[in-house]
Amino acid sequence: MSLTLPTAPPPASMDVGIVSARNSLTAATGGSEQELRRKGSRYALTFAMPPMTYVQAMDWGDLKAEGETVVMRVYQPGLFIGDDAGIGTPRIKGGAQIGASVLIDGMMPGYVVRKDQFLSIITGGQRFLYQASAAVAADGAGEMVVPLRHLLRRSPADNDVVEIAQPMIEGFPRDVADVSVGVERLVYLTFTVRERE
User: Fold this and answer.
1) Average pLDDT, stretch 77-98?
2) Domain assignment of residue 85, given as a range
3) Section 51-75 average pLDDT
């Protein structure tokens, strides 16, 4: 089971990195290039936290747990997503979905997922993070097909939870900065959460 990191304070910055599984082919004779999409591209988000007191920083100690994955909220500053009442109860509609889109139901009719908006899907107890590649609105039945920037890494099951109001990234903490207490007695913390598969 993953360790859930605090939601406060929010990060001062978040860098979105991609661990790509694509395959680029270049002809040895200098001909045209091809790029093949492959299943497995995933996210690595790097967070820089605002200065914290030493006591506040203690709440982030799970970043140093060896062999454990962590769950961290994905921040999308300035994007009004709405609360659960305005979104609905998004779920996967139908199992065995593959490819670069996902069919969701349980949405409030008319709700719009914006281009590049994050969403996470909980499949088999693990979160998978995705971004929409185009804007799409839920139809009158509360269904929508969300096109994704990357191929689904694992086929979701029918009725799997889709997190839109508060998307989360789950993965191993990497590049966790050593706790450094400055002369002003504040702690500066940076780390990356990289999805595991």
Assistant:
1) 87
2) 78-166
3) 93
pLDDT at 32: 79
Contact 126, 157 (CB under 8 A): no
In DSSP notation, the chain reads -PEEPP--SPPSEEEEEEE---EEEE-TTS--EEEE--TT-EEEEEEEPPPEEHHHHHTTGGGG-TT--EEEEPP-TT-----HHHHEEEEE-SS---SSEEEEEEEPTT-EEPTT-EEEEEETTEEEEEEBSS-EE--TTS-EEEEBSS--SSPPPTT-BEE-SS-EEEEEEESPPPPEE-TTSEEE-EEEEEE--
- Count: domains in the chain: 2
What are 124's two structure tokens?
């088999």
Chain position carrying tokens 């002809």: 27
More reliable by pLDDT, 73 or 180: 73
| One domain, residues 132 and 172 | no
In this prediction the pTM is 0.89
Q: Look up the CATH number of the domain holding residue 22.
A: 3.30.200
